[in-house]
Structures are given as structure tokens and as C-alpha cells.
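Need C-alpha cells for this chain, all 243 residues.
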Amino acid sequence: MVRLDLLSAELNKPELWNDPVHAGKISHEHGSLMGKMKEVKAFEQELLEHIDMIKLAREENDTELESESMRALRRMRRDSKNKELEALLDGEHDSYSCYVEVQAGAGGTESMDWAAMVMQMYKTWAQRRGYGVTVVDEMAGEIAGIKRATIKVDGEYAFGYAKAEVGVHRLVCISPFDSGKRRHTSFAAVAVIPILGDGSTHVQMIESDLRIERFRAGGAGGQHVNTTESAVRIVHIPTGIVC
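Here are the C-alpha cells for all 243 residues:
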């Protein structure tokens, strides 16, 4: 309540919007806390109503009404456990929506197929949680799967839940694309980026995480064609993102 009062006072300051980025953060946090307060009050009210219904059902010896109220209380208990978990997601950007990018790594067709499976798992997870899912970008593999794909996951705490998936995911299995039925190891890199929506996104690059590859043209040509590095590729090693 103290934090909510402070934010409300901050929003009432006429000079707040002189800094749109700061104002956006204050407005977002205030709206989030107001939503949580409404949820808590509604939860409390529903809890009291079901307790009263159980008392009434026992007085009237109505087993059906009592069973219905008990089922509702068990559901509320599960919901409260989920809210406890959300309370632990207190990172700066945890409450925001996010982009999830999956990129096939080393392993050819098998890795592209694996990347498609990983992306489908994230889509299914997001939909089951009631999040909105939008495909932003997708590049299909030549034979199966995807080379890379990006989805937008809209919903509160989407980034907080998904950020633990960042990294390289590996699968070892018998390849359905190998006529010799040999075991293959497939890789898929996952990146999760919060959607702040206020123009204040900052990405810190560590130089040691970047691999810079330079290329020279080959074959006959002018005097500089084989001495000038005419193409550059930058690879972000942890995620495998290439630009």
C-alpha cells in the first residue's frame, strides 16, 4: 500500500511526463499494483463467500452444495500457489511480455527439426497459460523444421517465466532422417527478450561473446578483389544469432 500511495502521488505531478521513459515505468508499475490489489480483494471476497456457503450447506445438510464449495476452495488454493510463484518474479522486467527466438544450431536437418519442436513447446506453454502468441518471423528448413523463428508472447510475467529458457538446448536421439538409423545430437539456441514498450531497452554486449568473421572475394578480378575484406559476419556465441 505504501508503494502504491507513492506511485499515485508521483503520477499526480504535472512535470512527470517531461521524461516519457520514466513516466511510462511509473505508470506501468502503478497499473500493475492496482491490478494486484483488485485481484487480492476479489480473492478475499470469494473465499469468504465459499466459507459461508459451506457453513450453510452443513446446516441444511446439503452435500452437493458443500462439495461444490470445496471444489472451488481447492481451485483457489491452486491459484494462490501460482500467485506465490509470481511474487518471486520480482526482476526489473519480469512482469513484461516478451519475444522468444529459437534458432537451429549445428546438426543440419535434425537440428532444424529439433528447433521446430522447441518452438512448438513454447507456443503450447504460452497458450495454456492464456498468453497471446503471435509469429513474428519464421524461416523454414529445406527438408524439415525451421532455421529460426520468433514469436511474441503477450501476457503478464511472460518474460519472468520464459527467461530461464535462455541458452542452448540439446537433443540426442535416433534421427528419423537418417536411413542408417544412427544417433544424432541436435542443438537449438533460445533467446528471450522483454518488450518494454517505452523505448528504454538496453542490451549490453560482452565483446568476448562475439565472434567476428571476415571474408574476401575469390576468383579473378581487380587488383583489390583478393586483398580487401568485403564481407563481415558477427555471431553472438551464447545464442547463435548471426548478423
